[in-house]
From TrEMBL:
It comes from Sporofaciens musculi. InterPro entries: Aminotrans_V_dom (IPR000192), Pser_aminoTfrase (IPR022278), PyrdxlP-dep_Trfase (IPR015424), PyrdxlP-dep_Trfase_major (IPR015421), PyrdxlP-dep_Trfase_small (IPR015422). GO terms for biological process: L-serine biosynthetic process. GO terms for molecular function: O-phospho-L-serine:2-oxoglutarate aminotransferase activity; pyridoxal phosphate binding. It comes from the Bacteria. Homodimer. Its cofactor is pyridoxal 5'-phosphate. Residues 4-348 form the Aminotransferase class V domain. HAMAP family: SerC_aminotrans_5. The gene is serC. This is Phosphoserine aminotransferase. Pyridoxal 5'-phosphate binds at residues 76-77, 101, 151, 171, 194, 237-238.
């Protein structure tokens, strides 16, 4: 067996230790004689899995008691509708558009109310985060929406926007658990887990409990009401049980690594290796404003499409997978999530140096 270095933006690399454990438990989870995949979600064994996962996540992120943790389905994209349906009491919301995911979310929200784009970085292909210190926040806005780490473009907010007292809602799909977070600054934090935590199919929503009400937009489906899931402990219907089980294992792994402070240090070290090289290279360069660089997604180009394609092809042959940039940006992108070992980034930089020498 040989494992590659997988730089995919998502679904993405998971800790090898977690995959091995899951493999070992595949046929017989903890003496139950069955796989977690085959298990009733109403069983004692599964209840323990979901309770432990929630407790470990609360511990890792320091989630206060007045926030609920929901394990839902539908991916991050389903939240684009659930958020307005549940939170647009005044039928108005402010969106900051820093990439395709924020744009998609804002377009979905338009179906349910008035959407004000209060800032955008579309003018420079989303290569920076706009100044968000003094935005024209709408008087009647129910919330201010951001995508905190822009997976496709490789930018991240270094400071949260000044929402002038309005609720902050954040999509953290691609920076989930990559560094410590102050949950109390948000009304809702959510993310699809397939970028940094687990298998696709599960989305985690952390929501202040006073926002979970029956006062939702008319015709909101039962399944799209936060209250439905909060009242049932995420077990209103069959949850994405196997996904939750793997997320739980990743939470344990993160705690063993030293928690989110340690993860941040590890991620900064990895990202610095790559950015430092991009800054000194005569062939490759990063595509975003240095001050807004993401620790998780690192897009770069040579400036020549043919050379980019040659690089991606040779990198693949050398065991570096999924380095092709998003179809909307081109070039390359290395996603270096929590589970990417530092050796992977070191090996990539060494490969890039060699490629530069051979092709310059
Ligand atoms: C991948 C991604 C999404 C979409 O996730 P799905 O689970 O496929 O719906 C949304 N937001 C961000 C920031 C992402 O990286």
């Amino acid at each position: 067996m040989s494992r590659v270095y997988n730089f995919s933006a998502g679904p993405a690399v998971l800790p090898e230790e977690v995959l091995r454990e899951a493999a070992e438990e595949m046929l017989d989870y903890n003496g139950t004689g069955m796989s977690v995949m085959e298990m009733s979600h109403r069983s004692k064994a599964f209840q323990e899995i979901i309770d432990t996962a929630e407790a470990d996540l609360r511990d890792l992120m320091g989630i206060p008691e007045d926030y609920a943790v929901l394990f839902l389905q539908g991916g991050a994209s389903q939240q684009f509708a659930m958020i307005p349906m549940n939170l647009m009491k005044n039928k108005s919301a402010d969106y900051i558009v820093t990439g395709q995911w924020a744009k998609k979310a804002s377009e979905e929200a338009k179906k349910y109310g008035k959407v004000n784009i209060v800032a955008s970085s579309a003018d420079k292909t989303f290569s920076y985060i706009p100044d968000v210190s003094d935005l024209p926040i709408s008087e009647d806005a129910d919330y201010v929406y951001i995508c905190e780490n822009n997976t496709i473009y490789g930018t991240k907010y270094q400071e949260l926007p000044n929402t002038k007292g309005k609720l902050l809602v954040a999509d953290v799909s691609s920076c989930f658990l990559s560094e410590p977070v102050d949950v109390t600054k948000y009304g809702v934090i959510y993310g699809g887990v397939q970028k940094n935590i687990g298998p696709a199919g599960t989305v985690i929503v952390i929501i202040r409990k006073d926002l979970i009400t029956d006062d939702v937009l008319p015709l909101t489906p039962t399944m799209l009401k936060y209250k439905t899931h909060a009242d049932a402990g995420s077990l209103y219907n069959t949850p994405p049980a196997y996904g939750i089980y793997i997320c739980g294992k990743v939470f344990r792994w993160l705690k063993k690594q030293g928690g989110l402070e340690a993860m941040k240090a590890h991620n900064e070290k990895k990202a610095k290796l790559l950015y430092d090289y991009l800054d000194e290279s005569k062939m490759f360069r990063g595509t975003v404003e240095p001050k807004d660089r993401s620790l998780m997604n690192v897009p770069f180009v040579t400036g020549d499409d043919e050379l980019d394609a040659k690089f991606v092809k040779e990198a693949k042959a050398a065991g570096f997978e999924n380095l092709k940039g998003h179809r909307s940006v081109g070039g390359m992108r290395a996603s270096i999530y929590n589970a990417m070992p530092i050796q992977g980034v070191e090996a990539l930089v060494a490969f890039m140096k060699k490629f530069e020498e051979e092709n310059l």
